[in-house]
Design a protein that fits this description.
Shape: elongated
Number of strands: 11
CATH architecture of one domain: Beta Barrel
Helix content: 10-25%
Low-confidence stretches: 1-37, 201-206
Radius of gyration: 38 Å
Structural class: alpha+beta
Distance between the termini: 51 Å
Number of helices: 7
Strand content: 15-25%
Mean pLDDT: 83
Length: about 500
């Protein structure tokens, strides 16, 4: 659409032979496939171009008279103002001929300095990015008067490196002096200054997760990263198939029971064979698994069947397996040593269970019912692209001025947030509204609450459960930038979307 407006402007200027060239350049810039684009986070850049100067075709010559073109050079500084708008300052030098069909033909050098605005058709993921340009500049001539010229044209950036671009540009320059209208075409390169964002400098080891034992469980989640094992045992081997991994199994060659650390209890006396001196005959813990001869009754103050002389907790009922101490959940770990005394667990987790099997026991797992990572305290990791969407939404959600009515363009990003909530069912969301300090603090507090609520209600209509969301307004109390200028105030007017693991 922008190219069409520019073309109509050119039609009103008396240089009809340019139309074919402009049409070919517009088609080329429109149809090339996109892969990357300039990075708007790198604000500054420098450029160099080789110029082809045409002072003839607009002053009596022909557009196709390429032999009459003269040469020049350009050095420039570019400053990115927004994702789409840049300000460029090109300094140019070259030799030109004027009045080619008259006796007054003169070869002269020119030196010019422009201020040009570029509108770049930026889109995330493109390699080719076309742009329109216009501006104003002053031109000094060695043979002739100083004059003001108004350039307008179009160009194309082609990415060849993380911060390097080949640049193509053609422009028509209208001069306020007579017989100075001209065309200038250039080819060169632009280099962006500054350090690339961290996400563009990812190290290979961050992108590839190792699975040293090839058991289908990456090393960061594998409790036995160098030994092949099943997923249900967190990647650890189990030779005897008793569902107790070998590193926890006291009898790894014999199929046993979890409560006995993987060892069998052949005689069923509650004492594992590896600790039972009479494994084929039921006995007592006091007699190391062997039957006891009748003997004089001994004191058993708590009546738990364990004599006081062997009872580690003589005033509390317990079991023989726990030396007379209570074990409420029956996991073989006494209550005083059990971090989760009412839930059966494993000794390795101090008596706590690992419900989701992610290697993090429930006492430390913020998401105990869904597998997560150690780095995220047992909760699933939120993908980088989803985090980026939530960050963008902070400014992308827009409202009618001074009200809590959502603009239609906000619907797209709110639907993306709805999709994220559906992908992470074990997370809740807090929506917080913020304003700048324009107006009264009371009005700003009310406006921030209503805007947060508008987003909340939109997501409820998208099918997100109200129980999974909350909204809060903070008014002007939590700025993230200065309120002394419009740019800072714009950043402070925002709605934040924070994902919180469900407890």
């Amino acid at each position: 659409m922008y190219f069409c407006h520019l073309f109509k402007v050119f039609q009103n200027i008396d240089f009809s032979n340019m139309r074919n060239l402009l049409f070919i350049f517009i088609i080329f810039a429109s149809v090339v496939p996109g892969l990357y684009a300039q990075n708007p986070q790198l604000k500054s850049g420098v450029s160099f171009k080789k110029l082809f100067l045409d002072y003839q075709s607009q002053n009596g010559g022909t557009l196709s008279g390429f032999k009459d073109y003269r040469h020049g050079y350009e050095l420039g500084y570019q400053r990115q103002l927004t994702n789409n708008i840049a300000l460029n300052f090109p300094l140019r030098y070259g030799l030109v001929n004027s009045h080619i069909d008259s006796l007054a033909s003169v070869t002269k050098s020119i030196l010019s300095l422009d201020a040009q605005f570029q509108y770049q058709f930026f889109k995330e993921g493109r390699r080719f990015i076309p742009y329109l340009m216009a501006g104003v500049g002053g031109v000094h001539e060695t043979e002739g008067e100083f004059n003001i010229q108004i350039p307008a044209g179009l160009g194309l950036y082609v990415k060849v490196g993380p911060k390097a671009y080949i640049t193509l540009q053609t422009e028509y320059r209208y001069s306020l002096a007579e017989d100075r209208n001209n065309l200038q075409h250039g080819i060169g390169f632009t280099y962006l200054l500054g350090k690339l964002p961290a996400e563009e400098e990812k190290k290979p080891e961050e992108m590839v997760k190792l699975d040293s034992d090839n058991d289908g469980i990456v090393d960061e989640l594998d409790l036995c990263p160098n030994a092949f094992g099943p997923k249900e045992l967190n990647g650890c081997p189990d030779k005897d198939g008793d569902s107790v991994p070998d590193y926890l199994d006291k009898c790894p060659e014999s199929k046993g029971l979890k409560q006995f650390g993987g060892c069998p209890d052949t005689d069923g006396d509650g004492i594992a064979d590896n600790e039972d001196e009479c494994p084929n005959v039921a006995g007592t813990l006091a007699n190391k698994g062997c039957p006891e001869e009748p003997k004089v009754k001994v004191m058993d103050s708590d009546g738990d069947g364990v004599s006081d002389d062997k009872d580690k907790c003589p005033n509390e009922k317990g079991t023989e397996a726990t030396m007379g101490c209570p074990d409420t959940d029956g996991d073989g770990i006494t209550d005083k040593e059990d971090k989760c005394p009412t839930k059966p667990g494993l000794k390795i987790y101090n008596g706590c269970p690992d419900t989701d099997g992610d290697g993090i026991d429930d006492s430390r797992d913020k998401c105990p019912n869904v597998a997560g990572t150690v780095a995220n305290e047992g909760c699933p990791e939120i993908k980088m692209e989803d985090k980026k969407t939530l960050d963008i939404a902070m400014q992308a959600v827009q409202f009618q001025t001074g009200s809590a009515v959502l603009k239609s363009e906000s619907n797209i990003v709110l639907r993306q947030i709805s999709d994220i909530m559906n992908r992470y069912p074990d997370f809740n969301m807090n929506i917080s509204g913020h304003t700048d300090n324009t107006g009264s603090s009371t009005a700003n507090q009310s406006l921030s609450e209503r805007r947060a609520k508008a987003c909340y209600e939109f997501l409820v209509k998208q099918g997100i459960s109200a129980d999974r969301m909350s909204f809060t307004g903070f008014g002007e109390s939590r700025p993230i930038s200065t309120n002394e200028n419009e740019k800072g105030r714009t950043l402070n007017r925002r709605v934040e979307f924070n994902m919180i693991p469900r407890q």
